[in-house]
Amino acid sequence: MRYKIYIDGDFTNIKSVFIDQTVGIKVKCSICSQVHANRVIVSEDSLKYVDDKEKTNLRINCAGCKSSMGVMIKPPKGDRITIMRDHEPIRLHLSEKVFNSFYVSFLETKKCELVDKVDVDCSVLSDQKVLYENIQIEDGSWMGVDQKGLNSRIDDMEVRYEEVKQS
Fold first, then answer.
1. pLDDT > 80? residue 53
2. CB-based contact 119:20 (threshold 8 Å)
3. How far apart are CA 19 and CA 23, in angstroms?
4. CB of 6 within 8 A of CB of 101?
5. How far is CA 6 from CA 29, 59, 66, 91, in A?
6. Fewest C-beta atoms under 10 Å: which of 76, 96, 105, 165?
7. Could you name the domain of life of the organism this protein comes from (predicted)?
8. 8 Å CB contact between 6 and 120
9. pLDDT of 93 higher than 80
10. Could you tell me which of 83, 65, 62 has the C-alpha nearest to residue 18?
11. How many structural domains comprise the chain?
């Protein structure tokens, strides 16, 4: 199955929201429907090869039917921006914004499907290109103030995933 991960909310003075492509998920086996006992961490940095053709970021076995389940995570395709931070360039993926949602990641699962919520660490780029890394969300809200006193804010924030139909 394929999923898009979105950050929903009311955004003020926000150019982009993005994640570091490491997420916490709960999965269930597509073969026997048993839910994996623990949440698992999937990271873009942990690339594994199952064979010459198939690659994955996470490979686990179902405790019920012993089927091998896999998850691949990728950043969305799109524009990139370079900003300066401490006199060093940082390249960032600009997330696609649709209405009140930023598309932040893509997951593809093999022999398993997502259940429950997805845990992510978010960073925010303001309209003035100020980077706020690993923001702390409290009760679905966050606010940052830059050196000029301009507020950037997110209200009613929620992480959601949507299954992408395969054609």
1. no
2. no
3. 9
4. yes
5. 23, 24, 31, 21
6. 165
7. Eukaryota
8. no
9. no
10. 83
11. 1
| 35-39, 142-146, 162-166: the lowest-pLDDT one | 162-166
The answer to the question of residue 159 being in a domain is: no
Residue 80 lies in a domain: yes
Q: Which amino acid is at 56?
A: T
Please state the φ and ψ torsions of residue 78, each to the nearest 5 degrees: 160, -170
CB atoms within 10 A of CB 56: 20
Q: Domain range holding 62? A: 2-9+18-119
Give 113's contacts (C-beta < 8 A, 6+ positions apart).
1, 27, 28, 30
* Predicted local confidence at residue 52, as pLDDT: 66
In a domain, residue 67? The reply is yes
- For the segment 57-74, the average pLDDT, to the nearest whole number, is 93
